[in-house]
Amino acid sequence: MIQPLRIVNKTFLYILLSALACIFVFPFLWMVLASLKTNMQIFAIPPIIFPKPIIWKNYSIVWENVPLARFYINSIFVSSTVAASQVITSAMAAYVFARLQFPKKHLIFIVYLGVMMIPSQVTVIPLFIICRKIGIIDTYGALILPFLAYPYGAFLLRQFFLSIPSDLEDAARVDGYPRMAILFRIVMPLSKPALITLGLLTFMFTWNSFFWPLVSTNTTEHYTVQVGLAMLKDQLHMAGDWSTLMAGTVISTIPILIFFIFTQKNLIKGFSLSGLKY
Amino acid sequence: MREKRSLEKKHQTSPLRREDFITGIICLSPSLLIVIIFVIFPILFSLGISFFDWRIITQEKPFVGLANYVKMFTNPEFWNALKNTALYTLGVVPVGAAISLGLALLLNRNIRFSGFFRTAFFLPVITSTIAVAIVWLWIYNDHNGLLNIILRAVGMKPVTWLTSSKTALLSVIIMSIWKNAGYHMVIFLAGLQSIPESFYEAATLAGAGPFQKFRYITWPMLVPATLFVLVTNTIFSFQVFGPIYTMTGGGPVRSTTVIVYHLYVRAFEFQEMGYASAAAWVVFLLLIAMTFLQFRLSGKEKIL
Known about the structure:
- The structure holds 2 protein chains of 2 kinds.
- Chain A is mostly helical.
- Chain A folds into 2 domains: about 1-60, no CATH class; about 70-275, MetI-like fold, CATH 1.10.3720.
- Chain A has helices at about 1-35, 40, 55-65, 70-100, 105-115, 120-135, 140-145, 150-165, 165-175, 180-190, 190-210, 210-215, 225-240, 240-275.
- In chain A, α3 crosses α14 (about 240-275), α4 (about 70-100) packs antiparallel against α13 (about 225-240) and α11 (about 190-210) runs antiparallel to α14 (about 240-275).
- Chain A is globular, with a radius of gyration of 24 Å.
- The two termini of chain A are about 45 Å apart.
- Chain B has 2 domains: about 1-50, no CATH class; about 65-304, Orthogonal Bundle (MetI-like fold).
- The two termini of chain B are about 20 Å apart.
- The interface between A and B is large, with 99 and 100 residues.
């Protein structure tokens, strides 16, 4: 009696999960489909689901008219510089918090924790004024310099460092290794998974940030993908040119989705870590 | 254990401690320098600016005391923005948490392809807000958007999702829940997986049904994860900007003007940096109050 009921239950579960998966995936397919239609096809009544014929030229139009490659290079350069720098500065700070005898380190750590909770809107206006004053508005400097370090990484890595046994470090100290060498030769290699996770999270976060790049850049030369996309939308939405807009959105989205598929294990783990370690 | 080790260290010879101090300075200064210049100083600076009539273009920036705050609290646009932000947060946070918990419970069992489903639910999290907002702008399109095509196909009247002040905010709320459900699901999943299997086994032996197991084991054990989801999502929702900027521009008739959008317009279109800083501080204080309240209500004051 129980067995058939279980199978029905399982089947129902799979159907439910598949339906839900459709809700989460279909908008992406819908975007791709729209990018392969003409605007005529898009607004046809009755609606056409699959493009017929398939229109590829939206992609060449958007690629030729909008410096998407430039936005891409900007985003990759900014995000990877910020991510690499945050991993290193965070590991160094976390090492002090986790292992060294340093005056007032607990106080500094508590300040770091407090700072993390402050919404970025509080700092964005003074940040703008400061960057204007030192003349780095609309340069890579504005996009990178303020984010070379951030408390979150130091917090995350401190927790991780505390969880690794210090035997190896103690042995190295007995052998007369300096602290600095221990950090770079022992602690950091041992923490590789945590460092990768932090790097990926920071990369994603920087890649997707919008408010600050929007206010701190004002020429296409320094637009990131997000700002470029928003500007593209401003132009094409008014004109009702959905097919070209969708092609631009696809181009800006697909690479990050591919990046995600290759790194998803680490990334999802990192995202779930961000919740647990509180 | 750690206590003991630090006690031992106190007795170590001073050259080692001096090495710690020097290494500490070298290791901490890059991080500390950046955080002080670009985070801590701006926080204080921001509070200062809120007492001035601060415009980027003019040389003179007169001190105006509390005038910016008075102007803000007597400005109906500010209250409207606050109301919209509260509605948005109330819409996104509880419903989003419930949906994410449901997804996590569905995936937290021995099923095939669970990795595939998890990836599918996570796709919108990875995609940038702007790209997602543009896609949904198209899904919500009055004429041939996906939703209205479906509505018409099942014989219902199409809805003017984003072009009516009655439904615009709701539409943005739905999109935001969709976008972030996967993230919160992963947090809940991690919470679920940290519950020892033995608890459920003991409950089964005691004759507990699935509902009782959820009520007396899963639910209480998930309090930290739930709290994290509620607190962080409240903080994020209060700062919503990207979807509003891209999808509605605050309209129609200011029905989706949230507080950060209001702040953005005032600071970067009207150059009223003082007024906008005052608004930012009000957001900040409200967030502190709400976070505190959420910890209080859950009885977990000491969790941080």
